[in-house]
């Protein structure tokens, strides 16, 4: 035997303090004073104990090197050097600043939203994926995580091809091409990406050093341009560069769109330059303090890069004219009457370059992409800046993609990618992810044509930004107490505006790429939703679902009930839900998507032990219901006896208008062998239900309902394994009475609980949503390498085995009775064929007996079944009664296949059936006429369930009616799928429990599944619309 022990494992280097405390406290034995052995602690002390310092040797970056540098390098792309001057030429200085401003608004709002999420708790590795998944849940996070990782991988190819194209241009100018332009781009790109891969695999420290070097080169290149603007050389004037000049500034301030360009097309070209703001957040797992670093580094990078973009746009627009010939002979010797351009005023005539001039000019803002090189003081430094911008962006993307993908794989969102979750070395480097990213990038580099894929990549980034903004709006809207970001400079409505702007920009850049992005995100969202990953991150989706449910429940409580809106809302006394699956599936057939279904479970015994089991079972069995697609709630209570527990549930179960109105119980099959006090409790439940205006439904299967002795109480799903492979956990508790084979919810004792091994939180703090049982349970357990099937109930053994517990290869095969019971337990999960649902409507109980079969036939599995209605009547009025009933059903709009009027319902039953009934009740009779009066009175007082001779004679007619009805049921409904029949009700205190149970027994024995239904006389059907 092995005793399960409780442990708190500090598995990861840095953990959320509250999460660690919670994990430890979950495994502590509850004491009245809250501490074991009288030990007291302080919150600060507990937090310090729970905190684990960083592992020795792990490289962590601060906000400058980790976030600021990376974001600046990504935002300062090649756009700064080879496209910004062209944008100024097309849009003019004013609209260029507006374009930059609009892009900055989108990125700043996204930066504020990122800062809010990043400061709302500890941030682990995974960047945008981590932020979105922990805010909106695994569905959105899984969708964005995959495409964001892919976008970064392809972005590596884009930046490397940009670098290779620049190198090939230089080679072409010098006449040193290796093969041809296309193949040279492929060769140079492949060599470059191999070098970048080597830097990345060398470790984050080397990669960070390389980024610093590239940033220095980039800053020097920008400084080179700025210095060059103040040194206008005579040799550069024919090319359109004159230095700062007010006339040039005024001329270039307004737009001059050419070649079908528009404001939005120019904006679409510029915006991808601003999509590097998540470069720092993408390596969140490598930051020393991501909560502080991400907001400071990201927002400062946006500010600095925006100022530089605006400054260069204004500078180049103030120094360089739109068109220039490059010809030194275009100087003006004599004043020209029609020349009014800024160049004319500076003694240069470039009128031949104007669109109407027809000449093809190669210089000026509109014609030369290398304006910054021409303006700069040292042109090769600008080329170095272009190399630096492309390589730094490529390097950042090459690092980001594997980190995001590794975080995604660790969360098991896509089980097929699990192999990429493994990390290596002290920094947990995703080497497999690096290789995958390298192969993707290399594939796209060999294509060498990225004009088609580029818009899709930009839209992938924008989709991530949109969801980050939406995450903040959603979390604020949900009003979750857990949404407490330390960063306060955000607004939910501004974040919503940011999300909308991102979606608009997606269409502005490329409408078909935007549509494709939406389709991919939606497809991945549907896939992850369908797979239901086993994670629970406390997302805002959950919080908003709760808030909506709360608000609608409160709103519903102010609405009066109406007969048209009546729906059966069932409290089922199931005990452990998986012990009586047939009961659940049959009730689910008429409550699914219609009404409330609550599985009641009464725990009895010592309070402390029962309360522990109560909280454990609540999570465990609710999980079982969800796994088995049962739209129901599990409601356990602790009570001294079953009747008290039933009363508690009937009075307190539900919320507002969503409260049960029908009690459903299984038939007490073994009532004759059990304790008659349990029968008294069973019958009193019916009376208690009627007292609180409940309807009552009793369900009987001739094979029985309880299969707990076959499958074990804790066999929840195939995913939850027993502690050793193909093991069976057997527990014995000799101090408890055995659980009798009844369909009423007697709580299993502690010996009947199986400890499911708790899955520790993994390195990412993922909290499993599978039902968890506390460790350290105080009962013996052991594993045996075989299967047991115990059908003797003299001891409460509970057997747990793998799902194939009834396989033919078992050492102890099921007997015939158990096999039939097992088959019957799943009969309502199958599609029902073309058969009948027979309704025996013998009493007007408000219509519940008719409504339940109608609701059953609306379900897909039962749609081929037809309703047949049986009613009592007189022989000379059969046709009249049939027509009247048909008219009534038509008014109720209930389809039926046949109506049968039973004229012989009051005929005396067969003698052999009467004799069998008398033989059945003989052990329960008092026979007071054969005893002295005092002895009989004393016996009746001690055993009130006994049947007196007077009682038997008084209710002889009713007894014969039940026997006769059973005969008619066997005659007419023996082939029906199910029978729905009015439940006979005995007056409280007038009919003994034994006689009433005998009526139910004789009425329902040897029949197909039967529902005995009695409403509370509240009308549930109406003629009116």
From TrEMBL:
Record's keyword annotation contains Transport: yes
One Gene Ontology MF term: sodium:potassium:chloride symporter activity
One Pfam family recorded for the sequence: AA_permease
One Gene Ontology biological process: chloride ion homeostasis
Positions of the SLC12A transporter C-terminal domain: 580-1025
Membrane-topology descriptor: Multi-pass membrane protein
Cell compartments where the protein resides: Cell membrane
Gene3D superfamilies recorded: Amino acid/polyamine transporter I
GO cellular component: apical plasma membrane
Catalytic activity field: K(+)(out) + 2 chloride(out) + Na(+)(out) = K(+)(in) + 2 chloride(in) + Na(+)(in)
Main location: membrane
Keyword terms, alphabetized: Cell membrane, Chloride, Glycoprotein, Ion transport, Membrane, Phosphoprotein, Potassium, Potassium transport, Sodium, Sodium transport, Symport, Transmembrane, Transmembrane helix, Transport
Keyword Membrane included in the entry's annotation: yes
Transmembrane segments: 67-87, 93-119, 140-164, 184-203, 212-233, 263-285, 297-317, 378-401, 434-454, 460-478, 490-509, 515-530
Domain annotation Amino acid permease/ SLC12A: ranges: 66-571
Positions of the UniProt region annotated as Disordered: 741-771
Coiled-coil regions listed in the entry: none
Record-stated family: Belongs to the SLC12A transporter family.
Matching PANTHER family: SOLUTE CARRIER FAMILY 12 MEMBER 2, SOLUTE CARRIER FAMILY 12, CATION COTRANSPORTERS
Protein name: Solute carrier family 12 member 2
Annotated organism of origin: Chloebia gouldiae
Upper taxonomic lineage: Eukaryota, Metazoa, Chordata, Craniata, Vertebrata
